[in-house]
Write a structure and sequence with these properties.
Elements (H helix, E strand, L loop, with lengths): L1 E12 L4 E3 L2 E3 L4 E2 L7 H13 L5 H4 L12 H14 L2 E11 L9 H12 L6 E6 L5 H4 L3 E12 L3
Parallel strand pairs: 5-6
Antiparallel strand pairs: 1-4, 1-7, 2-3, 5-7
Helix pairs in contact: 1-3, 3-4
This protein binds the ligand Nc1ccn([C@@H]2O[C@H](COP(=O)(O)O)[C@@H](O)[C@H]2O)c(=O)n1 and 2C-methyl-D-erythritol 2,4-cyclodiphosphate.
The ligand Nc1ccn([C@@H]2O[C@H](COP(=O)(O)O)[C@@H](O)[C@H]2O)c(=O)n1 binds next to strand 6.
Cofactor: a divalent metal cation
EC number: 4.6.1.12
Family: Belongs to the IspF family.
Length: about 160
């Protein structure tokens, strides 16, 4: 078994869609990034890469590369899944938290879990997503950005 941790932050700005966990969430602002800035999927990918000691998403998908401009982070997650497969690992479980003062994310959590378990080819019960405000404190509390944290366990395929 291998453990990994991931963390990511993106700024909330006008004129961008708010994509979290592959779900397009109705909101007056969205997250800024080179990709679709899906802060949850980014933290999850970093936790998976971390568990394999394979660096981070900035190394694998550089923000200087135009092929990643506005790309869906679910496509990047598919690439991380391919890397897991070729290194002989599968998901044990993932537990992630999104810190957002608004909007309310609870209505979208099941769809996020379905998106992630579909791409990672694991069961819904292997993926847990939580949401929290930061009680109006800090940059998240001021609604300047959204952050995400993820831990994952990977299992060797032939263990
Ligand atoms: N963006 C968010 C933040 C929180 N939730 C849900 O509300 C619960 C209470 O949040 P606190 O920050 O006051 O602990 C939390 O456990 C989530 O279920 C949410 O849906 N969206
Ligand atoms: C995902 C990548 C892909 O180009 O772009 P961003 O959406 O800017 O995300 P970030 O978490 O800042 O870093 C990784 C990037 O390389």
């Amino acid at each position: 078994m291998r453990i990994g941790f991931g963390f990511d932050v993106h700024e909330l700005v006008d004129k961008r869609n708010l994509i979290i966990g592959g779900v397009d969430i109705p909101h007056e602002k969205g997250l800024l990034g080179h990709s679709d800035a899906d802060v949850l999927i980014h933290a999850i990918m970093d936790s998976i890469l971390g568990a394999m000691a394979l660096g981070d998403i900035g190394y694998h998908f550089p923000d200087t590369d135009q092929q990643y401009k506005d790309i869906s982070s679910l496509i990047l997650l598919e690439k991380v899944k391919d890397t897991m497969d070729s290194n002989g690992f599968k998901i044990g479980n993932i537990d992630a938290t999104v810190a957002a003062q608004s909007p309310k994310l609870a209505p979208f959590i099941l769809e996020m879990r379905k998106n992630i378990s579909r791409v990672l080819e694991c069961s819904l019960g292997d993926i847990n997503i939580k949401a929290t405000t930061t009680e109006k404190l800090g940059f998240v509390g001021r609604k300047e950005g959204i952050s995400s944290y993820s831990v994952c366990m990977l299992k060797a395929v032939n263990s």
